[in-house]
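chain below, 488 aa
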Amino acid sequence: MVEMLQVLRGWSTSRDGETAMSDDNSVLTPGEFAARVAGLAEDFHDLPRVIGLLGGNGTDWAVAQLAAWVAGKTIVPLPTFFSLPQLEHVIRDAAIDHVVATRDALALAAALGIGTTPISDRRAAAFPAPTPGAGVIVYTSGSTGRPKGVRLGLEQIDCQARALAKAIEASPRDLYLSVLPLSLLLEMIAAICVPVLVGARTHFASSVAHSVGAGRPADVLKEFERWRPTTTVLVPQLLSTWVAQLEARGKRPPEGLRYVAVGGAPVSEALAERAWGLGIPVHEGYGLTECCSVVAVNRPGRRKAATVGEPLPGLDIGIEDGEVVVNGATVMEGYLHAARAEQPWRTGDLGSLDQDGFLCVTGRKDKLLVTAFGRNICPEWVEAILMGDPRIAACSVLGHGQEHLSVLLVPSTSGERWLMESPRAHILLWLEQICIDAPLYAVPKDFVVCQATEAKRIGLLTSNGRIVRDAAKRAYPALKIARRPIAA
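prediction:
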């Protein structure tokens, strides 16, 4: 039995005076949580081997995820913020004919036209012996192309959770605040697997996670003030939102907050510095679904700015022809409908290791822009600089084969009015000021602004708030024509 499920089995007879998992509508002790997992695992026993998991953040999702694994099932997370065609694509590709759904997602599940099992409150006194063969298929949000299903076994998930728990020094004293959608692999591991392993508590801030999935983060400051967590994981867009809220209200993060991991996209040095200046203990990390999420992360008391930290225990990171390659137990089994993955895994990311073994990632190997003047530019590098400004929620730098760079800007809540109403000349000057430390050829000379709601509607944003690069390239000309010019 994997260690995570061994620990969970022990919850059925211990620590009944404490809280294991909670959300806005329920609070579960370790014993209650284990009993619900056991009861649902019995309900899942006769379901197909591969099942979809559909719903919002909360204790129901956590119970269903672990119950499915106890029952030996492979789960496919189905985000509620996916469009119906997106969900139908995943269902067809993964050959799903049955879905397990939280109460708030039952109507959406019915629209899929396949078998549905609601997540019940039934509890069982005896914790069943886990059935082998459990796993997960995660569809990469990807910046380009159609998402692929990544196959991961439960042993790889367990290995990743143990390594991450060790790296961040997780303990039973921790209270993890979950603000990202659980359909993201990193959040699934950080909010459920790691706390189970170490006996920590998780609170699911369901409304914030829903707003993140919708591409417009809500008032995260309120949730941090209410629950006063010790740890959490954020994407850069959410960190930027929180930093702006703290600055606007003259506040500080809660005492006791000891570790905030930030990943999913590059974190600008300017944003990290602002966060640390407010007292937010930001620790940058790097990973990819194909390697079971986290590959490297900065540790408590051992953070090096402008890097994504050191490799997780048990992983070997090398650089070959400028590309980051990873070897270790958490490399995926392979893509769905494809052969087993080879090791070491070539990530497609460009990077370097410093003399202390800290990794610096500079961009994607296949996304290099070559301007008409022969300049090679990593767009992610410029985007990270731009994202240091709180008025930008997401952006995509374009310009392959062009004389200069252009950028598609998705404004944050605080920056939307200014970016939508300011004269063009003012915004171009502002872009120059943000990129003052970059060479002239890397400063965007043209731009278009797309509101977050519109960006989400037309498929420009992924589930974690990143811009879909190919979609941005296709949409830019039309958005440029649609935007009414404002005189300088």
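DSSP finds 16 helices and 25 strands in the chain. The first strand starts at residue 21 and ends at 22.
thats it, cya
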